[in-house]
Amino acid sequence: MSAKYRKQFFMPPKKYLDFMEKDAVERAPVWCSVDLRDGNQALIEPMNLQTKLDFFDLLVAIGFKEIEVGFPAASETEYEFLRALIEGGRIPDDVTVQVLTQARPHIIKRTFEAVRGAKNVIVHVYNSTSPAQREQVFRKSKDEIKKIAVEGAELLKRLTEEEGAAYRFEYSPESFTGTEPEYALEVVNAVLDVWKPSPERKAIVNLPATVENAMPHIYAQQVAFIARNINYRDAVVLSLHPHNDRGTGVAAAEFGLLAGADRVEGTLFGNGERTGNCDLVTLAMNMVSQGVATGLDFTNMPYLAASYEKFTNMKVSPRQPYAGELVFAAFSGSHQDAIAKGMNYRKDQHLTEWNVPYLPVDPKDVGREYDADVIRINSQSGRGGIGYMLESGYGLKLPSRMRDNVREIAKRVSDERHRELKAADLFELFVQYFMNARGVFGVGEVHFKQEGGIAASVEIIGKHENITISGDGNGRLDAVSNALKQHFGIDYNLCEYEQHALSKGSFAQAVSYVGIERGGVSYWGAGEHSDSTTSSVYALVSAVNHLLEAENHD
C-alpha cells in the first residue's frame, strides 16, 4: 500500500462480518429523495424557486412520500421555497417534507421558523463525528462532539414541544463510515436517549457514507453493527445515505438493506456532490428486476430523464442504467439474434414472466419501444436484428437466408453514411433494393395457360423496347422463370420461395420472397401485390434483376 494513502474506514468487531440478515432485498425501503437539497447544492447553477417547485411536483408524481426540500437556514431562496410549498398548499397530506439543519442553535431556530404550518415534517439534524473532522476541522474531543449532538437533539425536542407540533426527528453522524463504529453508536444512542422514540413516533437514524471510502460490504458491516446494538430498535427507522466516490453507491445501499436498514436517501440518477449520491432510479429498478414492488413510478423513463435534464441542466448518460438512450440497444449481431429469438419465443409460448436474453427488464415497462430502442442497426449488426426490425415494424417475415443479403446492404450503407440505421431507414433500403426491383427490366402483363404443364406469356419492359416472351414449367413461377432464363441466356437455380399475407404497413395483401442461385452466389428479391401469383412473379423479377446487374447484362 502506498505510504501516501491508507485505510480511512473503521471495522466493527469481526462477528459482524456476517452482515446479511437475508439473501435478497425482498421489500422496498422507505424512499427519501434529497434532490432538492443534496442534489441542488451540487449543481453549478442551483435551481430557482419555480424550478424547485416543478421538481417537487415531479417527485410527488413519481411516488416519493418523504422529500428533503432543503436547508432553509442556508439561504433566502431555500427558505422561500419551503414557505411557498406550505403556503401554496402544494404538499399532499401523505407526503412528508424533510429539512436539514446543523446542530447549531441559531440554525435550528431558523429552520423551525421555515417549517411552521406544515402538516408532516422531519427535522434532520447532523454533526460530524469522524476523527478527521474532530481533529482537523473542529479540534474537539469525542465528548465535546457528542455534546454538540445531544444539545442539538434537546433543542429540537424543546422547540417542537413549544410549537405543539408532532415533528419527527432524524439524526445523522456525518462521515459515519470514517467514524469508529463504537463511538458512532455511543453518539447515536445519546441522541436517542434525549428523544426517547416510540413505535408510534419513530426517530430516524441516518448513516451517511458522506465520502465513500471502502467497499460496499464494509459499509454494510458498519450498518449491521449499529442495527444490532442501537437502543430503541423497534422505535428507530435505520436509514442509509450512500455517496458514490468509489462508484459503488447503489451496491452499498443494497448491502446496507441486507444488513438491516429500513430506509434510503438518494437522488434521481445519482446527482450530488463529487461523484454523486446513491442513484435511486437504478436502486429501485434493480428491485423491480427481481420482482419487488417499489411504490415508485418509472414507467415513463424518457419523460423523467428529460424533466431531470431540464430542471438540473445535467445530462443523463446514454449508458445510465435503465434510463439512458442506449441501455437496451443491441448493435452486436449475436445479441440481436438472441433478443429476436427470445422475443419470438416469449410470444409463441405466451409467457408472462420476463426472461429475454440481454434485457434485464422489459423496455416497455420504462416507456421504451422495442423497434426504436432495442434492436439498433449499424455496421456491426447481424441478420437476426434486421429480420426482427422488419418483422416487428413492418410485418415482413424474411426467409433466414435472405437476411444475409439484406444485412450486407445495411452494413455497406451504414459504413458509407457513418451512422446507425433506424427502422425507417432499413425499411427504405429493403424497398429500394429488394421490393419489386426493376434495375434491368420490368414486367407488364403475365398470362398463363394449362397445357399439360403451365405455359406463361410474359411482357418484358426493357430500357429500349417492350417484348413478349414465353416459357413452360411445372408451375406458374417455374414457367415464368424458364421464360426469363431463355430470353436472357442465363441459368440459375430457383432455390427458395416463401410467401405470407401482410398485416402491417401500407402494402397490399401478399408478400413473396424468391431466392435464386448461380455459381454459388445467392440473389434475392421480394414482391408485393394483392394477387399472390403476381407478387411471386415480382419477387422473381427482382432477384433476376440483381443477378443480371451483377453480371453486367443489359
List keywords for this structure.
alpha/beta, single chain, 554 residues, three-stranded antiparallel beta sheet, 14 strands, eight-stranded parallel β-barrel
Describe this structure in words.
- The protein contains 18 helices and 14 strands.
- By secondary structure, it is of the alpha/beta class.
- The strands form 3 sheets. The chain has an 8-stranded parallel beta barrel, surrounded by 8 helices. Strands 9-10-11 form a 3-stranded antiparallel beta sheet, covered by helices on one side.
Q: Could you give the order of strands across the largest sheet?
A: 1-2-3-4-5-6-7-8
Low-confidence stretches: none
Strand content: 15-25%
Shape: elongated
Described by strand count, sense and barrel closure, the largest sheet is:
8 strands, parallel, barrel
The chain-level structural class is alpha/beta
Mean residue pLDDT:
91
Number of helices: 18
Short description:
With 554 residues, this protein is of the alpha/beta class. The chain contains 18 helices and 14 strands.
SSE layout and pairing:
Layout lengths: L29 E4 L1 H7 L7 H14 L3 E5 L5 H12 L8 E7 L2 H11 L5 E8 L2 H8 L3 H22 L4 E7 L6 H15 L7 E7 L6 H14 L6 E7 L6 H10 L4 E4 L13 H9 L12 H12 L20 H16 L21 H5 L8 H12 L5 H18 L5 H12 L7 E10 L1 E9 L4 E8 L2 H13 L4 E9 L8 E9 L2 E9 L2 H19 L4
Parallel strand pairs: 1-2, 1-8, 2-3, 3-4, 4-5, 5-6, 6-7, 7-8
Antiparallel strand pairs: 9-10, 10-11, 12-13, 13-14
Helix pairs in contact: 2-11, 4-6, 6-7, 8-9, 12-14, 14-15, 17-18
